[in-house]
Write a structure and sequence with these properties.
With about 250 residues, this protein is of the alpha+beta class. Helices cover about 55% and strands about 5% of the residues. The chain has a four-stranded mixed sheet. Bound molecules: glutathione.
């Protein structure tokens, strides 16, 4: 399945309704803080992108000052094409003029460069490999099945639903009794997964089947994460998502 096409269609659509909301949100994207002295941090982003949210959450966790620049995905800026000539996608983190593409790579980069506070990846190499494994699982399995569920109808939708719930069950086990996938602290896997819950919160479609009784740990985890300021400030407002997203 071509994730790019799906995401373009669903999360980060490039049609005319998108153009309108991009204009509307361009004003909102101007964050009130300035880049830190000597460090210029720019994020090429699109407000509805779960991938962009990951990078913002990581920057917020580290209290990094950055400029969020909204891209019009139907008319990509010359800067985006120059900074990400291979995939031509957001998010792109630009640190002192140098691009870092792909959201999980950008989150790792942020963790390495600003390593003095809120570590996202564990220092132990084996634990670090496990965090990368689960973040990759989130990317390749969870996002993919959630998007498939969103896009399809009938039997295909039902198959995607079952597959998605198997993934959630696995994550429930993986979380165990810890508050976060990062253990006691919010970490890399949490950053990778939590943006998806912005849509779960918004659309009853998802909320209908991630039942608290069945998945108490994941539901509690999602609540815990979304109560964090670094997460909540990067989530678009529920009514904005609902207003601008084709309803199912
Ligand atoms: N694997 C990429 C996915 C990024 C992605 O799919 N970005 C979408 C927005 S959500 C995009 O820029 N789409 C524009 C296009 O495909 O032309 C990441 O993790 O950064």
């Amino acid at each position: 399945m071509c994730q790019t096409a799906v995401i373009r269609d669903d999360f980060c659509h490039t049609s005319s309704f998108c153009v309108q909301i991009i204009i509307k949100f361009k004003q909102m994207s101007k964050l009130p803080f300035e880049p830190a002295m000597g460090d210029e941090v720019i994020l090429l982003n699109f407000w509805l992108s779960p991938y962009g949210m990951r990078v913002r959450i990581a920057l917020e966790e580290k209290s990094i000052k950055y400029e969020n620049r909204e891209e019009d995905l139907s008319n990509k800026s010359a800067l985006l094409l120059q900074m990400n000539p291979v995939h031509k996608k957001i998010p792109v983190l630009i640190h002192n003029g140098k691009p870092i593409c792909e959201s999980l790579i950008a989150v790792e980069y942020i963790d390495e460069v600003w390593n003095d506070q809120s570590p996202l990846l564990p220092s132990d190499p084996h634990q670090r490999s496990q965090a990368r494994f689960w973040a990759d699982y989130v990317d390749t399995k969870i996002y993919e099945t959630a998007i498939r569920f969103w896009r399809t109808e009938g039997r295909e939708k039902e198959a995607a639903r079952e597959e998605f719930l198997e993934c959630i069950e696995l994550l429930e086990e993986q979380l165990g009794n810890e508050p976060y996938f990062g253990g006691k602290n919010f970490g890399f896997v949490d950053v990778a997964l939590v943006p998806l819950f912005c849509y779960f919160n918004t659309f009853s479609l998802y909320a209908k089947f991630i039942h608290e009784a069945q998945y108490p740990k994941i539901v509690a985890w999602a609540k815990r994460c979304t109560q964090k300021e670094s997460v909540s400030k990067c989530f678009p407002k529920e009514q904005d998502v609902k207003q601008n997203f084709p309803q199912k």
